[in-house]
Write the structure tokens for this entry.
Amino acid sequence: MIESPAGRPHLPSLGALSAFEAAARHGSFTRAAEELALTQGAVSRQVAGLETQIGVKLFERVRQRVALTPAGAAYAVEVRAALRQISSATLNVMAFRGAGGVLNLAILPTFGTRWLIPRLPRFTEAYPNVTINFATRVRPFDFAREGHDAAIHFGGPAWPGARLHRLMGEEIIPVASPALVARHRLAEPSDVLGVPLLQQATRPRAWEQWLTEAALDPAQATPGPRFEQFAMVGQAAVAGLGLAIVPRFLVEEELRAGVLVTPFERPSRSEEAYWLVYPEEKAALPAVSAFRAWLLAEVGVEAA
């Protein structure tokens, strides 16, 4: 086993990794040297030493050009992500002096805009030293590759290498514009079979579940347009394009305003739930700890 001077296995020096990453990005030792304020020979020696240490050839050298080997290309992706995380952690601790910090949070777009963001003033009041940066993700991803600290996930309690905290389930209801309800005379569940049913891309079986629970045959339904986000589904329903099936809490404003109505009160409970997810190694970060404590209190769950 290759040991570093500190006794840590397989841990090359930061200088060697930085030289490799820059050379991989530029495809040139010379340009990497210019970026790092080193000589071309120094970069070449750093990369050669790294190859010797790990026992893997990272570059093919052809005259004045260098090209990544397949192993080098795969390694470059991982090293770049690790260096980005080290840089972010360093800037974070410098800026906040170990208290608070930046939370890079991946959220579901409609959940974020309709449920989370309206509540954030309470978080910023309680934790003024924490800044949240948002990105939208609708499916599970690799935390190590993408650099997010935590995520709001909808689905089952499964995410390899991460901790999960259940936030809430959801009640699914059919909604439509008042004009569409009147035009199609929607009075009972069986009436939906003659109406275009708006589809949500990440919930392809939502209508099938609702129809089955209503003792209706999904094969007799009329599929309508498909949309990527619940916000788009809701707006399509407001516009009268069809009947939507959505979580109740995501359309509360439209229901109060009367631009959407429930033609009949027949809710369905989703088998899945919303979860707060974060990698095991991020659990003790001040920003993650603060957000976890606040969010679980917000949804009425006692933190473990």
